[in-house]
């Protein structure tokens, strides 16, 4: 069974873009892969936040993972900083990366735009992400479209190190992207992607939103004035986004939806979409409320960290050996 690895940052406001682009795949891949799902708190620290906020968000995302159907009996669920291998491998990869390639990362460029000096963590973010993936010998990484460049960098680093230190050092991973949902756009501005941090609450639907909020956001979603329900990202980005969301939640193809809504008004499409989204999110919210403050959640994360650590230590030992680092002393690493 090939291994899958992915992570989500504990930064609040997990939305339907995160779900349709990434989390839904996490659930679907569980049956025929060995899956490792991480809450990447070290990545979340690249944007400063209080200790309380970070700790709460970690447990929020952990509870969400379980609420959407990640099964801790099948998949490993854990918090990144509970496994020291991420930071260790992060350094080994740092020493095999170049400032040039990191400066070209779109996410870094966006987040550091117009700043005289950006936090170093933001610059190193993609190297730590590569370490996350390579630490588990993952073959497949389910993510949204916006992570494609980071996955490419991960592959480049793995290939580079393998070339220098031996082909058995790293497994070179592939990204996995959804057909519908890989890039969910903001409801108020369908030319930019739905994001956790946009100021306008109506730009996104968070997984914990009430039916009233969901209704308001969808009914207000920006469309166009030609009144035809057709998928055409270039000319009709708003309607195309609503059709993609509808398709991803209902399992109907966009072509079928175009037929079904041929001659209907935008109001009808939006009303039906509200129902589809509310029906999909209600069971998640019920399960989330059940588990968020339970001891079981903590036990699952402890158990996950133990299993993740066991895999991680083997990789660290192999990589240190290949790179000529250390002696194996100090830790129970067998070289
Ligand atoms: P993050 O919240 O940045 O940790 O993202 C978690 C996952 O959601 C990543 O795999 C992202 O690629 C994915 N993602 C974030 N925003 C969107 C979006 N608007 N559409 C689709 N996928 C997204
Ligand atoms: N960078 C990812 C995001 O913002 C989160 C992430 C961190 C990740 N490490 C990862 C995703 C490893 C996949 C694999 O969405």
Plain-language structure description:
The structure is a single chain. This protein is mainly alpha-helical and 335 residues long. The protein has a three-stranded parallel beta sheet with strand order 1-2-3. The protein has a two-stranded parallel sheet with strand order 4-5. The longest helix has 29 residues. The protein is globular. The model has no long low-confidence stretch (mean pLDDT 96). The structure holds adenosine monophosphate (AMP) and tryptophan. The site of adenosine monophosphate has 16 residues, from helix 1.
Short note summarizing the structure:
By secondary structure, this protein is mainly alpha-helical. The chain is built from 13 helices and five strands. α4 crosses α7, α4 runs parallel beside α13 and α7 packs across α8.
Question: Can you tag this structure with a few keywords?
Answer:
two-stranded parallel ribbon, Rossmann fold, 335 residues, 13 helices, mainly alpha, 7% strand, Tyrosyl-Transfer RNA Synthetase, three-stranded parallel β-sheet, binds adenosine monophosphate, 5 strands, 2 domains, binds tryptophan
